Amino acid sequence: LNATIKSVKGEKLDTTKPIAPYVHGLVGKWIWNSEITKWEHHSHMTIENTTTVKVIGLSHGNKFDAYEKYLDKLCEKGYMVDFMNEGKKGEIIYVFKFTRTQLAEHIKAGTLHRELKIVSKMHEDNLTVINPYNEPIRYINDYELIEHFTTWRLSIYTQRKIRQIEILTADKAYYLELIKFIKLVNSKKIEIAKMKSKAYLVSILTSDHGFKFSERLSDIKLYRLTLDEIEKLNAKIFEITERIKFFGKVSEKSLYLEDL
Q1: What is the CA radius of gyration of the chain?
Q2: Please, what is the Cα angle at 28 between 254 and 70, to 5 degrees?
Q3: Which of 109, 110, 115 is nearest to 96 (CA)?
Q4: Across the chain, what does the average pLDDT equal?
Q5: Which member of 18, 79, 242, 258 lies 3.0 to 4.6 Å from 74 by CB, making a disulfide possible if both were Cys?
Q6: Which of 17-31, 83-97, 120-134 has the lowest mean pLDDT?
Q7: Phi, psi dihedrals of residue 44, rounded to the nearest 5°
Q8: 118-131: per-residue pLDDT in tens?
Q9: For the packed helices 252-259 and 2-9, what is the interaxial angle rounded to 10 degrees?
Q10: Three-point CA angle 61, 26, 37, nearest 5°
Q11: Is 78 left (phi over 0), alpha (psi -120 to 50) or beta?
């Protein structure tokens, strides 16, 4: 993530230092293992007492169902007594129960991290990916990949700015027409009750008044066609105008960095 932020800002990446992985929503921390030159993900583990170990989150690469089956096997072979997931609303908080003798032996042997699969390695030997144009491409290293990706991603933010301005401009035009429509109704220049049909109203709005949103206006509920509604619409128009100004001035880099 930090490397991506630097790349977006146009700062040169330090290729002498390994880039820490980032996985959205993953709990725990990444530690660089210089002996094997790989990143390791460590779930957060605490020894609560002489019989209890708590682990928050799954290590990278572990799947919930497969991990639960693995834990069942650990219990069957007598590595621990029991386990439970105390997490709520998508959280994963495992509580592992041992006998005092079991836990003391595991701590002494240093097997907890390995047997509970609290540590996992990040394999990044293969940097072949599918690029935005659906073509396979192999990168020399992760620095090159990040720089190419952020360059492409910035172009998406250019398109996003244009699209946002188009949507906001159309919304503003609609609200302006709605205000005009309300004024016509309240001044009796258009009498809804005398309209033969919805299609007739649409034709009147389009041909006689040059409205572009005639279909949408014809679906407006009568209770909204009040002068009080105009005040609310003016507030919306002001807000939209400010958003249009914002997107007109803000840079693609700023939008990207805000999302990061």
Answers
A1: 30
A2: 135
A3: 115
A4: 89
A5: 79
A6: 120-134
A7: -80, 115
A8: 988 876 666 777 77
A9: 170
A10: 60
A11: left
For residues 256 and 157, is the Cβ–Cβ distance under 8 A? yes
- Scan for tokens 């096997």, then name that residue: 73
Burial 71-100 (b: 16+ CB within 10 A, else e): beeeeeeebbeebeeeeeeeebebebebee
What angle (nearest 5°) sits at the alpha carbon of residue 154, between those of residues 254 and 141?
115
For the chain, give the percent of residues with pLDDT over 70: 98
168 to each of 107, 158, 213, how far by Cα in Å?
Answer: 61, 16, 15
Amino acid at 56: I
Planar angle of CA 94, 95, 101, nearest 5 degrees: 135
Contacts of 137 (CB under 8 A, 6+ apart): 128, 129, 130, 131
- For the chain, give the number of residues: 260
Question: Any bridge partners for residue 151, and if so which?
Answer: none
CA atoms within 13 A on the CB side of 241: 9
Q: Is 84 helix (H, G, I), strand (E, B) or coil?
A: strand
Highest mean pLDDT among 3-12, 153-162, 174-183: 174-183
Under 8 Å between Cβ of 161 and 247: yes
CA–CA gap between residue 153 and residue 255 (Å, rounded): 11
Answer yes or no: are the C-beta atoms of 51 and 62 closer than 8 Å: no
